Amino acid sequence: MNIDLNSDLGESFGAWRMGDDAAMLDVVSSANVACGFHAGDPAGILATLRAAAARGVTVGAHVSYPDLAGFGRRNMDMASSDLRAAVIYQIGALQGLAAAAGTRVRYVKPHGALYNFIAHDERQAQDVIAAVRAIDASLALVVLAGSPLTGWARAAGLRTVAEAFADRGYRPDGSLVPRSQPGAVLHDPAAVAQRMARLVRDGTVTADDGSTVCIEAQSICLHGDSPGAVAMARALRERLLAEGVTIRSFVEAEEGVPA
C-alpha cells in the first residue's frame, strides 16, 4: 500500500506567520506551495521551497483566486481570460522561485474556493485546465476524488491525482462539508489517523450522516494552518507506517522510483 501525504505550505505573509512549514515538511511527501494570490510572500515562499528541496519533498503550485484578504476562500466569478492568466502567472512565478531553490514544480493543486468550485463547475474548470496545459502540460492536476473535474482534466490530456482530506468532514455524495457548517473540520488526531488508515486500506470514509462513502485517493491532504496540525500530521504518518503503508510522493510512484 502506497499513499502520498501533502500539505499547504508557504502561506506566511510578512510578519504574519501561518503554520510550521519546517515541521510539516518532515512529515509529508508533497508540498502545495502558495503562489502569492491567497497567501505567501516571495521570501517566505523561497524559504519553503529550499526547505522542501533539502528534504526531497515534491513541490506543487497551490494556485488560487486573487484573494489575499479572504485567504482564497471566497468564490469569484472571474472572466475566463482573467482566470487563465492568473493561473499561468502563479505557476510561472513558483517555477522561477523553485529553480532558484534547486527544485521544480511537478503538479498543480488549486486552493480553497477555486478548488471546490472547479470540482463541479465546468467553465472555470476548463479555464484552469487550459492554463495548466498552456504553461506545462506535463504537470499533474490534483483533484477532489470522485469529482467531475477528474473526467474533464483527463479528457484534455492532463494527468490527475485524486485527493482525500484527513481533517475535513465528508457529505454522502463525496463532497466536503462546507467550512460554515458543523463537522467541517476534524480535530482529534487519533480519530483522524484511524479514519485515514481505513481510507487507505478499504477506500472508504464515514460521511457526516453516518453513511459510508467510497473514495479512491492517491494523496491525502493535511492542512497546515489548523490548530494542532503538526501533531495530527505526525499521528497520521505514524499510524500509516505502523500498518505497513509506504508514504511516497505520487510523482515518485508514477515514475517508478524505488520506495
From TrEMBL:
One annotated GO molecular function: 5-oxoprolinase (ATP-hydrolyzing) activity
Keyword ATP-binding: yes
Gene3D superfamilies the record matches: Glycoside hydrolase/deacetylase
Biological processes, Gene Ontology terms: carbohydrate metabolic process
Reaction(s) the record says it catalyses: 5-oxo-L-proline + ATP + 2 H2O = L-glutamate + ADP + phosphate + H(+)
Keywords: ATP-binding, Hydrolase, Nucleotide-binding
ATP-binding listed as a keyword: yes
Alphabetized InterPro entries for the sequence: Glyco_hydro/deAcase_b/a-brl (IPR011330), LamB/YcsF/PxpA-like (IPR005501)
This enzyme's EC code(s): 3.5.2.9
Assembly and interaction partners: Forms a complex composed of PxpA, PxpB and PxpC.
PANTHER family attached to this UniProt entry: 5-OXOPROLINASE SUBUNIT A, UNCHARACTERIZED PROTEIN YBGL-RELATED
HAMAP family: PxpA
Main function: Catalyzes the cleavage of 5-oxoproline to form L-glutamate coupled to the hydrolysis of ATP to ADP and inorganic phosphate.
Family assignment from sequence similarity: Belongs to the LamB/PxpA family.
Protein name: 5-oxoprolinase subunit A
Organism the protein comes from: Pseudacidovorax intermedius
